[in-house]
Amino acid sequence: MTIATLGVVVGLAVWVGVVMAAGAVMRGAWPAYALVADAMTFTLPMMIARLTIGAIATLVMGFTTAMLARRSIVPSVLSGVLLLLAFIPQHMMLWEKFPVWYHLTFLASLVPLAVAGATLRTRSPWLRPATKSVTW
Q1: CB atoms within 10 A of CB 46
Q2: How far apart (Å, rounded) are the C-alpha atoms in residues 81 and 75?
Q3: Is the pLDDT of residue 1 over 80?
Q4: Contact 22/86 with Cβ under 8 angstroms?
Q5: What distance in Å separates the CA atoms of residue 104 and residue 101, rounded to the nearest whole number?
Q6: Which of 121, 115, 110 lies closest to 71, judged by CA?
Q7: Which residues neighbour 19 within 8 Å (Cβ) at sequence distance 6 or greater?
Q8: Could you report the per-residue pLDDT of 60-102, keeping only the tens digit for each?
Q9: pLDDT by residue (tens digit) across 90-133?
Q10: pTM of the predicted model, to two decimals?
């Protein structure tokens, strides 16, 4: 397994972990959300919270993938595309449960946010390897 492939796999696992943890926190901290979660009859603030969680998870995924794949953002793009391909059928099945803007916002943001997360990693000066070694 190449380091880029490992980056994609770990990035997707991180996405799932962030979404599951945030979902559990939301259910525990927001009783009204917990009541409607199974039926997926969310209010506008609940839908925005869900989109925010997805956005944060996707940024973290892109960042993590880029950390492991080193300087290339291609694995992060691939992670975003894989999420998009996985979620298109899910959103088609749930089309009637949510407004069109919700589906389009979530689906259209996956690849750009994965790239943004990778860009945060590749452009962060404090995360780049040192170019000069210090000798004592």
Answers
A1: 17
A2: 10
A3: no
A4: no
A5: 5
A6: 121
A7: 53, 54, 57
A8: 999 999 999 876 789 999 999 999 999 999 999 999 999 999 9
A9: 999 999 999 999 999 999 999 999 999 999 877 766 665 545 54
A10: 0.88
The number of residues making up the chain comes to 136
Alpha helices in the chain (DSSP H): 3-29, 31-37, 44-69, 74-93, 100-123
For Cα atoms 7, 19, 91, give the angle at the middle one, nearest 5 degrees: 95
Mean pLDDT throughout 37-51? 97
Give CA–CA dist 11/6, Å, rounded.
Answer: 8
* Token pair in block for residue 122: 């590749």
- How far apart are the C-alpha atoms of 58 and 106, rounded to whole Å? 10
Structural domain boundaries in the chain: 3-124
Query: Looking up tokens 């892109």, which residue turns up?
Result: 62
Cα 23 to Cα 102: distance, rounded to the nearest angstrom = 17
